[in-house]
Amino acid sequence: xxxxxxxxxxxxxxxxxxxxxxxxxxxxxxxxxxxxxxxxxxxxxxxxxxxxxxxxxxxxxxxxxxxxxxxxxxxxxxxxxxxxxxxxxxxxxxxxx
Length: 97
Fold this sequence. Notes:
The chain is an alpha+beta fold. The chain has one domain. It has helices at 14-26, 51-63, 80-83, 91-95; strands spanning 3-6, 30-36, 39-44. A three-stranded antiparallel sheet has the order 1-3-2, covered by helices on one side. A hairpin with a 2-residue loop joins strand 2 (30-36) and strand 3.
């Protein structure tokens, strides 16, 4: 099962934290969220994510300023045109060398 590692992030209120976890757990393909020290392990059903799931992961990573390079693993021939677009605001954060 593929997974993402989410480092500790800053929440500005208990409601903010609640919304983060609800959003993360509500993303299609996310099957588990487990704490490991100061990190979270996010288990995914597959490494082939739907466009909706990948866009939601991009959004939550941007919103909470999470490291985004690990999202590059979800590039496929089907999503390459929009996901790897140099004009996208996440491009440098995901695909920087």
